[in-house]
Write a structure and sequence with these properties.
The complex is a heterodimer of chains A (283) and B (412).
Chain A (H helix, E strand, L loop, with lengths): L13 E4 L10 H6 L1 H15 L9 H20 L9 H28 L1 H4 L8 H9 L1 H18 L10 H25 L2 H16 L14 H4 L3 H14 L6 H25 L3 H4 L1
Chain B lengths: L3 E13 L10 H21 L11 E13 L3 E6 L5 H8 L7 E7 L2 E4 L12 H11 L4 H15 L14 H13 L5 E5 L7 H16 L3 E5 L3 H7 L2 E6 L2 E7 H12 L11 E8 L15 E14 L1 E9 L4 E6 H4 L6 E11 L9 E9 L4 E4 L4 E3 L28
Parallel strand pairs in B: 3-7, 3-8, 5-6, 6-7
Antiparallel strand pairs in B: 1-2, 1-4, 8-9, 10-11, 11-14, 12-13, 12-15, 15-16, 15-17
Classes of the chains: A mainly alpha (283), B alpha+beta (412).
């Protein structure tokens, strides 16, 4: 620190570069300092999202809509899976909205390091912002399809309950889970590319672990708490309960899920941060 | 006493290189290999980031114990061949990758330019990419908005601002990318080889910009292969070879050493008992220091040998300051000494009307006997110093190193 005191620069302009520590300290202040870059990268994602397409932003609705049609035929009509007293299409759609947000955020977040190797190897910035970008940019699709859900609710004559006020909470839980898993997967995947090949399969499996095509009430009571360990179970059931008034709010699932979500994010940030020093070398 | 803004101490960086893999040629071998492969792959991948001992055979040190200091206002050049560790050094300084050992202290905001157009998105328009790229390089929105017009003018893309950059010509793309980068103004700028892009005019513009930056007391670290540019821009520097500093200090010394190493030189075979001296004189026989455009010069090569040399010949080769061989002369193509036996002799070259205008020229002298084998090569190059611009004809372009004596008229 030879000129830290006698140099006419501001303290924060002093940079010390040393070999990486085993447990580096988290610098949230630095992420905050780079918020502008985060903003621009999210903006870039949104700008190019539906460039050169005919349908534009209606794709945000189309994707869950088509899944809904397929699910209604296969699971609703053929398999006759119960739908908690509401028509199967809207039952599935109400779950597909959070699910498509979750799965596409998780997918892009998990791939975020690999798809941005050019940034990773050419400029410095807190790498933690890369998995955050898709979590934010996917909100636009989520909001568009939510508007569509309201349209469907009017069509079916279903009114939401007051619990809809809790939906931001559910959203945060879902975003944190996607972010935490995304950080785990991206940090692993940049060194072990197997992760990227397994990801699609992994996300599809997760869909069946969440009550997307079936109601959580099908799960036997004694497994219910274990079931709730996947945060998306609480999120999706809560979403249905508040929008479609299928059941009372499943607070048991939500509380367990929230704990797990926090755990995933906490470990994810730590793991990501520990591996961060290697990213540019293995990318 | 200038202040140091960058202090690098014992910097080393270790990488692992892939080793040649064992192959199996029997079906059984292939099968077992298939089974065992995942475990081995896992070990290999893990080894990318875990290092056990210093002595593992597949480790290379991209940088080893590099120390230097850069003062405020310096334009500091880093030169060296491919793989010498220049880019690694810059990447560590710009915090993209971490060093294995050592310590760096930097005082001031750092902007690094390892590539032009990092983060450019082909689908976005020129305008959008300026903002995006600016943000990626570390400018904030206000700064970009302030400099927007300047950037656009510099890149000469006014008409295409709202066209996606994927429809740009590659020249336009590079110009736009560089323009954004050039308007970055951090205290310390790290630049890698980015000047090797664009056409001549644009390159000159970029160099001008760099010179302007340095005149504002900002510090530049500049990595390049282009010795001519390095020599022109930089004041001090280091010459890296195999990850170590080969020479540090004044830029001219470093470049000279680099050029000496780079020149493809036939190895002198037996130069034990031969003494060779070279004199560069004007036509009155005075030793020349400056060599002016169109001036006649006399180059005398004096040879003293213990043994008789059979059919001796002297080669002269002129190199410009970026290491390009400009022209060469061989005495045995000009005069015949075939089967002559000489011990002490002087071979003179009378060069008329030299059109070369390079800032500095290096003269490489070699002695042959008969065939192609070089017996003696002169170690130090003789420098021939700048042409004064006033001597040059008005049609001369300063981006060339040669001026042809030329007339121009309307033909009948």
């Amino acid at each position: 620190m030879f000129y830290k005191n006698n140099y006419p620069f501001k303290q924060d302009e002093f940079i010390l570069i040393e070999p990486p520590k085993r447990w580096p300290k988290l610098e949230f202040k630095e992420i905050w300092a780079y918020r502008e870059l985060l903003y621009f990268l999210v903006w870039r994602d949104l700008k190019v999202l539906y460039k050169q397409t005919v349908m534009g932003f209606s794709w945000a609705v189309m994707k869950p809509l088509f899944s809904m049609i397929v699910f209604s035929i296969v699971f609703g009509k053929l398999a006759k899976i119960p739908s908690d007293g509401v028509p199967y299409p809207i039952f599935a759609f109400a779950a597909l909205i959070p699910w498509s947000y979750f799965s596409s955020s998780l997918n892009s977040s998990g791939m975020s390091l690999i798809s941005n190797t050019n940034l990773l190897t050419k400029i410095y910035f807190p790498r933690l912002i890369l998995p955050i970008i898709p979590i934010l940019s996917n909100i636009i699709n989520l909001s568009i399809s939510c508007v569509f859900l309201f349209g469907m609710m009017i069509y079916y004559g279903i009114y939401p309950s007051w619990n809809i006020l809790f939906s931001p909470l559910l959203f945060i839980m879902m975003a944190l889970t996607a972010l935490g898993l995304g950080m785990w997967l991206s940090a692993l995947g940049i060194q072990y590319r197997d992760v990227n090949h397994a990801m699609q399969f992994f996300v599809m499996m997760l869909m069946y672990a969440a009550p997307v095509v079936y109601p959580a009430s099908l799960i036997p009571e004694r497994y219910r708490l274990i079931y709730g360990m996947f945060p998306m179970a609480g999120v999706i059931e809560g979403f249905r309960a508040s929008f479609l008034r299928t059941r009372p709010m499943p607070w048991d699932l939500i509380v367990i899920g929230a704990f797990v979500a926090i755990l995933i994010v906490f470990t994810g940030v730590q793991y990501f941060h520990n591996m961060e020093k290697n990213f540019a070398d293995v990318a | 006493m200038p202040q140091a803004v960058i202090r690098v101490e014992n910097l080393s960086k270790r990488y692992r290189i892939g080793l040649h893999e064992q192959r199996h040629d029997s079906l059984g071998g292939v099968f077992f290999d298939f089974i065992r492969r995942p475990m081995r792959n896992l070990r290999e991948l893990k080894k990318l980031t875990v290092f056990k001992s210093e002595e593992e055979i597949d480790i290379i040190w991209a940088l080893k114990d590099v120390s230097f200091e850069v003062n405020e206002g310096d334009i500091f050049g880093i030169i060296g061949r491919n793989g010498a560790g220049k880019t690694t050094c810059l990447k560590i300084l710009s915090r993209i990758t971490k060093p294995t050992t050592g310590r760096i202290e930097i005082n001031g905001r750092v902007g690094s330019l390892l590539e032009v157009g990092t983060g450019f998105h082909p689908e976005l328009t020129g305008r959008e990419n300026i903002y995006l790229n600016g943000a990626i390089l570390g400018m904030n929105r206000r700064e970009i908005t302030q400099k927007f017009d300047e950037i656009v003018a510099f890149a000469e893309v006014e008409k295409f601002l709202d066209t996606p950059v994927k429809r740009y010509s590659s020249g336009m793309y590079v110009r736009l990318a560089f323009a954004v980068a050039a308007h970055l103004d951090p205290k310390i700028l790290l630049v890698d080889e980015v000047l090797a892009v664009g056409d001549m005019d644009f390159q000159r513009k970029c160099l001008g910009k760099m010179e302007k930056i340095s005149s504002e007391q900002r510090t530049i670290l500049f990595v390049s292969h282009n010795i001519g540019v390095v020599r022109k821009l930089c004041t001090r520097g280091i010459y890296l070879e195999f990850g170590k500093i080969k020479k540090i200090g004044n830029i001219d010394d470093i470049c000279n050493e680099y050029i000496r190493d780079t020149k493809v030189r036939k190895k002198a075979q037996s130069d034990n008992d031969i003494v060779m001296n070279v004199f560069v004189k004007d036509n009155q026989g005075k030793i020349l220091k400056d060599w002016k455009y169109k001036q006649k010069i006399l180059i005398e090569v004096e040879v003293q040998s213990a043994d008789e040399l059979i059919s001796p010949a002297v080669d002269l080769a002129f190199y410009s300051n970026d290491g390009v061989k400009v022209t060469a002369v061989q005495s045995d193509r000009l005069m015949n000494l075939k089967n002559e036996k000489l011990r002490n002799f002087k071979i003179c070259f009378n060069i008329r009307n030299i059109g070369i205008t390079a800032g500095q020229l290096y003269l490489d002298v070699g002695l042959r006997c008969g065939g192609d084998t070089v017996y003696k090569a002169l170690e130090q190059s003789v420098e021939i110093i700048p042409v004064s611009p006033a001597m040059l004809p008005p049609y001369y372009r300063d981006d060339t190193i040669c001026c042809l004596p030329v007339d121009c008229y309307i033909g009948k």
